[in-house]
Structure formats: C-alpha cells, structure tokens
Amino acid sequence: MADRGAGSHETEQIVRAENGGYAYGVIGADMYVFSHGGPVYLLHEHDVTRSMAGEGTTTQPSRMLDARSKVVSFTGREKELEDLTAWRDGEGDRVSALWLHGPGGQGKSRLATEFADRALKDGWKVVTATHGAGAIPPEPGSQDLRPHGAVGLLILVDYADRWPLTHLNWLFNNSLLRRPLPVRLLLVARSHTMWSSVRYGLEKAFQADTRAYALPPLENGTDDRRIMFSAARDSFARRYDLTDLAAVRPPSHLDRPEFGSVLSLHMAALVAVDAHVHGARPPEEMVGLSSYLLDREREHWTRLYENGKAGLDFTTSPATMHRVVFTAVLTGALPARNGAALLRRLEMPEPHRVLADHGTCYPATTPRSVLEPPYPDRFAEDLLAISLPGHTVDGHPSALWAEDVLDLIMGITEDGPYPAHVPRALTFLVAAAAPERWPHVAEHVELLLRTDPELALFAGGDCLAGLAELDVALEVLEAVEAGLPDHRQIDLDAGIAELGRRLARERLCQTDDPAVRALEYRRLGERLARAGRHEEALVETEQAVDLHRALAERGDGAHDADLAGSLSLLGRGHRALGHWREGLECAREAVRIYRGLPPGSAETHAVDLARALGELADLIVVDRHWSQALEAREEAVRLLSGQGDGVDADLGYALIGQAEILQALGRWEEAESVLNEAVAIYERLTEDEPGAHEPELGLALNSRAGVLFRLRRPAESLPVFEEATEIFRRLADTNPEAFSGDLAGVLSNLSTVLHNTGRCQSAAVIAEETVERYRDLVAARPSQYQRGLADALVHHARCLAHEHRWQQAVLVKKEARDRFWDAGLEGAITPEAMLSEKAAEHVRKADALRLRRPTWAVDDHWVTLLDQEECWRDRHNRVHLVEEMEPSYCANVVRFVLSQAAGVIESLIMTNSDEPVDWRREDTPETWIVRRPLLKALARRARASERP
Predict the structure, then answer these.
(1) Considering Cα of 685, then 688, then 691, then 694, what sign does the dihedral take?
(2) What is the 8-class DSSP label of residue 393?
(3) Alpha-carbon distance 32 to 52, whole Å?
(4) Distance of CA 93 to the CA centre of its chain
(5) Span between the terminal Cα atoms of the chain, in Å
(6) Rounded to whole angstroms, how far apart are CA atoms 857 and 800?
(7) Which residues lie across from 126 on neighbouring strands?
(8) Which residues make Cβ contacts (< 8 Å) with residue 658, sequence separation at least 6?
(9) Is the C-alpha dihedral spanning 457, 459, 462, 468 positive or negative?
(10) What local confidence, expressed as pLDDT, does residue 731 receive?
(11) Helix crossing, 165-172 with 714-734: angle to 10°?
C-alpha cells in the first residue's frame, strides 16, 4: 500500500498493510493491518489521567474492581519501581528492552501502569502497544506519537507472551523506535518462556540491550491477606468518603482457599465497605459477594430507568439492560454496527437507543465500540451463572430469556460460519461451570453441545480441556469426539489429550472386552503423544501392546495387525523418550508382523507397513546399518507412492527420512532433490490445513537447509533455516511439550549457519538461547537431551571465543565436557546425531578431494599435535621431526602458530576433547599456546641458531 504521509519529515508516516490489507492512521509511527482490515497491533498515547472508574462508581461498585480503574492505591512495589527507573535512566544503549514477568495476580500490570505514569511526569513519551486481533482501531490521526521534545520513548507492551512472535517483530521494526532518542521497551508477561525468542527479534531489528526481570510474589499467609484487605478497604472507603474504617472488618475465614487471590480480597473489601455504608451485613463467602455486587448492578440500572421517567436521557428498563449485559459478557466489545445488528437478531426494540443506555452503564474503551462487558472476568462469569436456570442462590431468580438468548448468540439456530465471538462465549461458560463454582452451568454447556458438538472444536483447545473437567454426559463428549481430527492439530492437541483422557477413563470402566480396552488405550496413547506428553503416552501404549499381544497369542491371526500397530506406536514413544534400543525392538517386531500378514490383509495395511519401515530405518542407524536403513526408507517410499493422494503426508515424511540417510551417505544432490519434493508436498498440505502439517514442513525445511549448507551454499541455506525456526517457534509457543525439542535442534543449526556466514553476533544470541532451551529440556528428560545440551554448550563456547571472551568460553566448554563424562555420553549418541556425524565425515572426505590434500578432524590435528614435542605436520600432511628441522623453519612455524592462536583456540573449543586444558584466568590464546609441548620444542630448536 502507498505511504500516507502528513507532508513533512517530522510527521511522515509509513503505513504498512500486511497481505494487501487496509490501513488506519497514526501520526509519527507505522501501523500494520491484516488483509481483513483489522490492525495487527494498536498504538495509543499513554494517559496518566485515564481511569476506567468515572463519577458515580459508588452506585455501581463492581467497576472499581477493574485494575484499570486504579481505585486501589499502588502499594508494596517501591523497590521494583526503583529498579525499573534505574533501567529506564541507564546510560549506554539507545534501545533497551526489559521482560517483566510473573504469575497472574502478582500486580505486573498495575506496576507497569504506575511506572508509565511516573515516566510521563518525568518527561518521557509513553506509548502503549496492544495486540490488535479483533480490536477496534482508534480514529484516524487520533494518536500523535511524535516525541515533541521528550527525553526518551517508553513503549509498554502488556500481555507480551500472548502476542504471536511475528507481530512483536513487526512492532520492533516500527519507525517509532528508530528516532534519535533513548527507547525503552517494557514487555509485561506471565511467562519467561518466550523471552529468548523475543530477544532474537530485537537483535535482528537493532542492537538492543535486553534483560529479564522476575516480579517476586507477595508473601503468603493470613497476616498478608489482612494487610491486602486493609489496603483495598482503605482505597475503596475514600471513594465513599468513609472515615470509620475500624468498623469495616474482613471475612472471618480469610484463610480459606477461595480468598487466595488478589481479586477475591478486593471483592471482600469492596463489599464490606459498600455494605457498611448502606447498613447491610456483608456476605462471608464468594458466592454471596458476587450476588451482592450483582444486586448493586440491578439497583443502578433501576435508578437510571426511573430517572429517565423524570427527564434523564435513559429509557432502557432493568430487564432489558440485564439481557444486554448478559449478551456483552458472551460477545465482548463489538463495532457499533455489529452490535446493533446483533440486538436486532435478539429482537430488542430500538437497538441504538439500548446500546447508548448500555454505554452509560458500561462506557466503551474506544469511541466506535459498543457492548463493553463488565469486569473483571470472574464477576462477568458469575453474572452469566446467576442469569441461567439451575442455581439455588436465594433472592436471585434466573432469567426466563437466558437460554434463548444464549442459543441465538452462539449461532446454533443459523446456517453459515460461527460468529467470531463463539470461542469467547463458550470459554466463559466452561470457566463458570467448573465443579467448584457453578455446576448448573454445565447443563447449559451440555445442551449447546447436544445441538451442535462442533462448537467445542471452534472454541479451541483450552475450551476442550475445560470441558473434560465438567459434569457432562458421556454421549455428549463422544459427539464432540466424533468431530476431532484424526491427525495432529497443533492448536487443539493439548485439549484433545485432556478430553481423550476423560473419555478413556469413562469407557474403560464400562467394558471388560480386551480388544475394546486395547484400542482405547492405544487411542489415548496417540492423543497424549501428539500433545507431547510422551511419558504418559508410553504407559497407555504399553497397556495396549500387552492386551493385543495376549489376543494375538490365540493364534487365529485376527489381532496380528492390531498388535503391529500398537508396537509401532510404542516404538515411536520409546524413540521420543530417547529409548533407542527399546524402540528398535518394537519397530523390528512390527515390520515382521506386517510382512507376515496374509495377502489381502497385507494390502490393507501397506501404509502401516510403510510407517513401521520408517521407524525401523530411523532407529537402525544406531547399529550403523546405513544400507539397511536406506533400503527400508526406499521400500516405504515405494509403498506410499502407489497409494494415491490420500497418503501424501506419510509420503512426505518418508521422503524426509530417505533424504537424511542419503546425506549420511554423502549423496547430497540426491538428498536435495528428495527434500525439494517433500517440501513441495508439505507446503501444499499446510496451505490446506496449517495446524496439521506445519511440524513436518518445519522438519523438511530444516533438512533441506542442512543439505544446502553442506553443498557450500550457505547464503541459500540461511533463509530456509530461518523459515524452519519461525515455524517451530510458533509450534513451541502453542505446545511446548511437543515441540521444544525440535525448536532447540533447529536453533542449534541456525546458530551454526549464522556464524559461518559472518553474522557472529546473531549467532551468539541464538547459541545462548539454544543452551537455555536445552537446559529446560534436560531438566525434564536428561537422558534424551543431555547430548544436545553438551553440543549446544560447545557451540556457545565457540561464539564466546569468537568475541574474545576466552575465560567464559573455556568455562562453558568445560561444562560441556563434564556433562559428557558425568552422563556417560562418550559413545552415546542419538540416531539424529549419528546421521549428522556420518554426514560430516563425508564432508571432510569431499573437502580432501576438492583441495587435493588430506584434511583432518580437528581432534586429530591440533589436539594431538600441540601436546607432543617430537614432530610438526604441515598443511600437506608431511611430517617433520623437530630435531631435524632448520632453526629458522622452527621460528617461522612458531610465528605462524601464534598468528593463528585465536583460531586454534576456537577450533579446540569445538572438539570433543578436554582442550584447552590448563587455562589460566589471565591467559590469552598466545600465552596458552606457547606453553604447549610442541611450541616449547620448536622454540628451543629455533634458539639453537643463536648459540655461538
């Protein structure tokens, strides 16, 4: 899209529309939008005076619970504010980013807002960035983001861990960050997980100082709860002009679990103050607190309606307002036109009048939106629950219209696509229906799903997982199950695993049939494996194998294929957990059984045989049976090539495996051709079903990039590695258990290529991230990932050495070697690493032919050469005895080795050896090398010419 500048350099604005989209305007910055017109992210000027709680909040007290209202005074985080201010004002880097993280409810957003308020008062330009998916953009030109003489620019990004990484990277590339003044990015998140990935995006955008800050939790215990209650009570009391605070006491059982959150303590304090002012007795439990606040909402609607009769511009009755608020909870804020259309479908009279009155009660956060829901979410969920029939709360009859409105909002009475708000609506209902909260809401969830089970799939994986905890009939859950994909679906797999466990638990209790039980265990094992829960999957799959083996031992052949299928799945489970030998035994037995099936059954299970052959090929390399592995892969490809388009995904995976073995055999051009075919298959499949085939596309790209690198085409390999990395970042963000290992491996490859293409600083950032990710993996599965961590540490040490950080490099290398020895990793290697090392061996042989001289692994050259004093070996592999070398030649060799000292140390760090040993804190590469036996011998020989 063309630029839409304001006419001068100062106000020039670059508007970018991603995928051919339509762009809205801001002044002094870029704005990215999707092809459907919605913004990727929104930029707002921070307003220190902005408060969500306006005048008259004592008549509608629930609004004071919204953290954005700032009603409760900021207390208890002065030390953290001092730390943030010191970071903001620090000298040095123009751009610095801080990842502020901590669990929900710790006060991160409130701390960030207070910090932003104070920065604004100190002369900084403060801008808030919010993720724009589904959001309503500001009026064109309404946000003036020019510095106007500010001392610096602070950008506040809340919920940063919920942003897709690509969208954060677009933010980092905004021209707003390119202005010649200090820039500070405060990224607020619950988790630390994404930080390493975000750091890389910042490094790519500009050389930025980056750091993380963990927000410590508040102290636990009843005393601390009383302190928090008192602070909230005092803040609320000021809104009521209440001075007699001693009479406002906390609930008598403040130590109960239900009062374990900040929100519950704030609710208790608010109700205690409001009840005291109105001469009422405050409730003691959470249900009573919610009911009390809902009563106050109704009183507010009623008062406005009655005042409308006396001339106030408000005509909506309390009953109608209840319906509108109920609707807003389910839909969230909508554009005005969409909101009016929705109310017409709900047959509400004068929808624009009703929306205006609703806006009086619940003001919109943006000028063009309507149906702002009540906050916080928990209170909104309580409103849903008390509106729906089935509860037993005294004095709060359910709404007769609630079920009909719910059906209309969920779109189950209409054809066509689901409304965009369905995931929010069902997620809120499932959260309210939790057994410890409002169990009767589960009946309404069940009714919805009986009518349309696919609602649960559209709502997403979190909703499926929540559904598994509800008291919902088995047949309803099975109806939902019928629509589940029978292949991987990244966004759903975690939820499918939870739902699958619930289904399996109930069905296993209903049957003693071993064949039925075996299939149930196997189905659950598959679902758990797709979700990355491999230890649990292995337990379930072993049960399936035991049952199928007992059935197969009857000898009638009816269950042989079932046993082979379960063995194949068990083999994949063992492989995922690093149990190579056990996996190989399972794969061999599965292949043997499939080959022994009678002709008709063998044809039916040809695809299953191909899959088992693939597992066998992947694992047989442990025994270095390269030709057998290639034969198995080639047979699998032949079997699948004759099955038609329905097995393209299996064919693509078989091609990836075939290419890996071809690389190990040094057949690079063949491997490239095979991988081009695999990539083409998965690009086509991913276009149709992104969530199902992205992992395989990432594997194919990673392998293809490796071939290009080994074919000495690094410039071509780098963008392919980066594409594979982006895929696995997305996958690992969605399902860390399943894809963190893949991401760590791809990052390791990317760092190597970056280093070898001269982008050493980027390589160092990625190398450090790789080590951090492998440490997390080793903590969970040491036997599987210890070798990967050791290799990552070696590469990280290489990057440190390249930056001349010698002491750190040596220490990191020592840790790598310690891990090898302590874990018994000498000779212990994964099938993937074995294939890679075999391929590297062929690279060395190819180099020797190309250079027409021998080449050595560094272990065989510098490691052994430096630690002996008898001979020198030159670049042509000619051996010279030191005692026979001319002194001048010896002097030349010493000068040559010292000139190469930094490169030699870097090479030694990369070896699978203890070198460099005997490193002293004050050492440089030169001082360390001159102490080696060879250098000492050469120096002595060189000095011989100086003797008289």
Answers:
(1) positive
(2) -
(3) 27
(4) 28
(5) 83
(6) 21
(7) 154
(8) 630, 633, 634, 636, 637, 674
(9) negative
(10) 82
(11) 120
pLDDT value of position 519: 95
The 8-class DSSP code of residue 372 comes to P
By CB neighbour count within 10 A (0-12 exposed, 13-18 middle, 19+ buried), where does 384 fall? buried
Name the packing angle between helices 560-576 and 514-530 (round to 10°): 30
- Among the listed residues 566, 576, 514, 516, the one whose alpha carbon sits nearest the alpha carbon of residue 540: 566
Q: How does residue 19 score in pLDDT terms, banded at 50, 70 and 90?
A: very low
Consecutive H or E run containing 130: strand 125-131
- Say if CB 314 and CB 320 are below 8 A apart: no
Residues 6+ apart with CB under 8 A from 690: none
* Contact between residue 740 and residue 748 where contact means Cβ atoms under 8 Å apart: no
Residue whose structure tokens are 């494996």 = 529
Q: Are strands 95-101 and 31-33 parallel, antiparallel or unpaired?
A: unpaired
Average pLDDT for residues 758-776, to the nearest whole number?
88
Beta-bridge mates of residue 101: 189, 214
- CB of 785 within 8 A of CB of 774? yes
Closest C-alpha to 8, from 23, 28, 26, 34: 28
Say if residues 773 and 744 touch (Cβ distance below 8 Å): yes
Across 72-78, average pLDDT: 73
DSSP 655-721: HHHHHHHHHHTT-HHHHHHHHHHHHHHHHHHHHH-HHHHHHHHHHHHHHHHHHHHHTT-HHHHHHHH
Task: Report residue 128 as tokens.
Answer: 């808030």
CA 101 to chain centroid, in Å, comes to: 15
Furthest C-alpha separation in the chain: 121
| CA–CA distance, 166 with 188 (Å, rounded to integer) | 17
- 579 phi and psi angles, rounded to 5 deg: -90, 75
Residue type, 453: P
Q: Cα angle at 532 between 526 and 538, to 5 degrees?
A: 50
Query: Which amino acid is present at 677?
Result: E
Q: One-letter amino acid identity for 494?
A: A
- From 143, 54, 136, select the one nearest 367 (Cα to Cα): 136
Q: Which pLDDT score is estimated for 922?
A: 87
441 in Cβ contact with 432 (< 8 Å): yes
Q: Where are the beta strands (DSSP E) in 336-385?
A: 369-370
- H, E, C per residue of 112-126: HHHHHHHHHHCCCEE
Give the separation between CA 342 and CA 760, rounded to whole angstroms.
Answer: 56
Kindly report the pTM of this predicted structure.
Answer: 0.70
* ∠ Cα 62 66 71 (to 5°): 90
Question: What span, in angstroms and rounded, lies between the C-alpha atoms of 231 and 226?
Answer: 9
Identify whether 376 is preceded by a cis peptide bond (ω within 30 of 0).
Answer: yes
Query: Environment class of residue 643 by beta-carbon count within 10 Å: exposed (0-12), middle (13-18) or buried (19+)?
Result: middle
* Cα–Cα distance, 163 to 14 (Å, whole number): 22
**Cis peptide leading into 916, omega within 30 of 0?**
yes
Residue type, 616: L
30 pLDDT more than 70: no
CA distances from 279 to 274, 313, 400, 632 (A): 9, 31, 32, 82
CA within 13 Å, CB half, 604: 9
- The torsion angle over the Cα atoms of residues 505, 511, 513 and 514, rounded to 10 degrees, is 20
pLDDT per position as a tens digit, 886-944: 999 999 999 999 998 888 888 888 776 777 888 888 899 999 999 999 999 999 998 87
pLDDT tens per residue across span 396-439: 889 999 999 999 999 876 777 888 888 889 989 998 998 888 99
Residue 804 sits at the vertex; the CA angle it makes with 798 and 809, to the nearest 5 degrees, is 45
d(CA 38, CA 816): 48
